[in-house]
Q: What sequence folds into this?
């Protein structure tokens, strides 16, 4: 498969939280499954993440949050993507997200929330089924 | 430890036993082809004196309180004094956390441990735009000395010791603590506690970083030098493997990278011209207690032995206190599961027991709900009771290093030492730990190990009860701590108010002094102390660091 046809995924770490074990495992897992993966590194603002998503022309963004700031950061990222005309990029997430937040996050436009204990394969399969190259 | 002819005899008997066992093994064979620890270190079925034939009792094992301290740092260990039960706590405002501290002290806790929220950890005030959505969430918000005064209100700083998990702004929080003590009328020479102040492991694993590695280490050496003279009872660095392990390292990597960081700090301080025996006794360590019981015990025993040898032989320390590896332990957050969360009480108890059998000086036991949210008061109480049951009911404290002499534990201890030393030697060849970090070496080793472990979980080669085996449909029935929704707003307002009302000319003058010290070679500590006393904020001081030293960005490797 040439890189033109490859699905491109941005794995992003918004906010100040430094827990990147899960984000890196998912990035590796997706790469091993044949996706083209870009990892933002830590401590990204919503603005930086959205700019990276648009510039890298990705098909999906995976957000990882483990320190409770998802309730502020995720909606902000979705809003900025909408504003930049990138509302069709699929956004999924993982980390420590309390159960009661999942319904409203899904309503806001997060397409999946992966909890601790998710298998790499499970997340990879979800991406295979739900993310297609936009070009 | 045995005579040569005896070893030969045992070897022969062992072979005979194995033959016999193999003949019957058609009936009862091992369930698995390969048995290994949680770190994937292979473990054989049986250990005998043959495995430790090259160990010399006095040289490798010895006596508690004596070189090389394999059996513990004090001669009486827990018979003389139980470990410090130190529960890490902090959330919301300084007032919320102060109430939790009063509660924990009333329940028999013997030391405090402060968890700061993310903006404080990263050197930002609550009113910074990057702090939005993070205020008070993972710890307590400390912006100025005012918050610190509230945090320790009614807590006598000459009676309790306090551990502060703080890294890039460690010098600032230490200065604030000194200032609060002085306001209580307690001399800084009398206060005791720890700042984590371990930036090297931040670059390797925990990733709360601010300035690049080399200037970060310079500020750490400033704190070491300052405390030697001014705050002699303070532990200046808590050299931490905890976060290395949480990031997915193996036990050997945790041990090796932590000790390599320790070597890095000692080298930097010696390079400054400090006498090794003047600061080494105030270095302390912080390890993880993961779920693999014997591997952890062996890790702690090997850690003490390696450090003693490094300090005595490599750095030529003369003072026996410089040889001691004293450590705090926290049970493994990463071993806890969101699924069937009450099982976490059991995991934590086993992990805590390993820490105790490994000779820890202080211990934090995780609460069962920590994987879901900040712990509730009820779950913290169970976690504290777990330690009290180990200390006062189980009897494991009666004998010192009760597993010492076990063929298995001694073999595993030796293996830990050998494998960790191989890493340490490799890092030395790279030019030391800072050079290794700049190359991304430890970071990559850990990422590989974390991925390998996750694959083992996914393939069910390793079991996590309730996650990849014995799963249940469940609604998670745990009540988690809720923070008040207007917390962020209130904290921001209070900090803005403070910044308006203090003497801003004096603040500016103090910050200029901090800047000069950063640019030159003056110790930054006295200048920071003056600045915090004028209520200069954490971020204002950190902004000076960032301006002078530059900002470190995550290279984003995976």
A:
């Amino acid at each position: 498969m040439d890189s033109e046809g490859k699905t491109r995924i941005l794995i992003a770490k918004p906010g100040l939280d430094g827990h990147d074990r899960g984000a890196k495992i998912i990035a590796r897992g997706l790469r091993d499954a044949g996706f083209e993966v870009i990892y933002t590194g830590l401590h990204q603002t919503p603005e930086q993440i959205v700019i990276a998503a648009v510039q890298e022309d990705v098909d999906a963004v995976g957000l990882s949050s483990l320190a409770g700031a998802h309730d502020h950061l995720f909606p902000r990222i979705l809003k900025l993507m909408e504003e930049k005309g990138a509302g069709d990029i699929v956004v999924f997430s993982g980390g420590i997200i309390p159960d009661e937040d999942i319904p409203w996050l899904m309503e806001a436009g997060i397409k999946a929330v992966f909890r601790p204990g998710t298998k790499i394969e499970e997340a990879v399969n979800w991406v295979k089924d739900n993310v297609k190259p936009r070009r | 430890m045995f005579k040569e002819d005896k070893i030969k005899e045992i070897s022969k008997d062992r072979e005979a036993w194995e033959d016999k066992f193999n003949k019957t093994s058609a009936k009862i064979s091992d369930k698995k082809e390969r048995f290994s620890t949680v770190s994937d270190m292979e473990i054989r079925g049986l250990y005998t004196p043959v495995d430790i034939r090259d160990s010399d009792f006095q040289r490798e094992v010895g006596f508690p309180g004596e070189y090389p301290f394999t059996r513990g740092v004090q001669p009486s260990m827990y018979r003389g004094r139980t470990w410090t039960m130190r529960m890490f706590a902090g959330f919301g405002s300084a007032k919320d956390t102060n109430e939790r501290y009063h509660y924990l002290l009333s329940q028999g806790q013997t030391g405090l441990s402060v968890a700061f929220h993310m903006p404080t950890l990263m050197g930002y005030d609550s009113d910074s735009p990057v702090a939005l959505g993070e205020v008070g969430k993972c710890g307590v918000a400390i912006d100025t000395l005012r918050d610190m005064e509230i945090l320790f209100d009614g807590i006598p700083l000459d009676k309790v010791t306090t551990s502060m998990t703080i890294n890039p702004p460690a010098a600032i929080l230490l200065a604030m603590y000194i200032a609060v003590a002085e306001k209580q009328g307690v001399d800084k020479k009398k206060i005791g506690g720890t700042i984590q102040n371990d930036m090297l492991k931040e670059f390797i694993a925990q990733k709360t970083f601010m300035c690049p590695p080399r200037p970060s280490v310079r500020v750490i050496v400033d704190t070491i030098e300052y405390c030697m003279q001014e705050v002699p009872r303070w532990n200046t660095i808590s050299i931490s493997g905890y976060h290395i392990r949480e990031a997915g390292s193996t036990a050997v990597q945790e041990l090796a990278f932590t000790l390599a960081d320790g070597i890095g700090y000692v080298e930097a301080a010696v390079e400054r011209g400090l006498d090794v025996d003047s600061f080494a006794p105030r270095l302390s360590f912080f390890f993880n207690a993961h779920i693999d019981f014997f591997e952890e015990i062996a890790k702690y025993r090997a850690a003490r032995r390696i450090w003693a040898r490094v300090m005595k032989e490599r750095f030529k320390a003369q003072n026996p206190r410089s040889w001691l590896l004293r450590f705090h332990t926290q049970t493994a957050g990463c071993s806890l599961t969101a699924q069937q969360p009450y099982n976490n009480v059991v995991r934590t108890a086993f992990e805590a027991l390993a820490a105790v059998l490994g000779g820890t000086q202080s211990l934090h036991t995780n609460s069962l709900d920590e994987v879901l949210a900040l712990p509730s008061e009820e779950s913290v109480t169970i976690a504290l009771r777990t330690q009290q049951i180990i200390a006062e009911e189980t009897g494991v404290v009666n004998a010192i290093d009760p597993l010492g002499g076990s063929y298995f534990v001694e073999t595993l201890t030796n293996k830990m030492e050998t494998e960790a030393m191989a890493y340490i030697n490799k890092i030395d060849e790279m030019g030391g730990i800072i050079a290794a970090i700049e190359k991304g070496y430890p970071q990559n080793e850990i990422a590989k190990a974390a991925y390998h472990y996750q694959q083992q979980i996914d393939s069910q080669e390793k079991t996590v009860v309730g996650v990849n085996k014995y799963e249940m449909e469940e609604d998670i029935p745990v009540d988690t701590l809720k923070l008040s929704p207007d917390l962020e707003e209130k904290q921001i307002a209070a900090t803005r108010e403070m910044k308006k009302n203090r003497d801003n000319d004096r603040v500016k003058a103090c910050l200029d002094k901090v800047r000069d010290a950063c640019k030159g070679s003056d110790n930054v500590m006295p200048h920071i102390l003056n600045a915090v006393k004028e209520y200069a904020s954490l971020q204002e001081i950190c902004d000076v660091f960032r301006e002078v030293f530059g900002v470190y960005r995550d290279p984003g490797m995976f």
In short: The beta strands of chain A are 8-12, 36-39, 60-65, 90-95, 112-114.
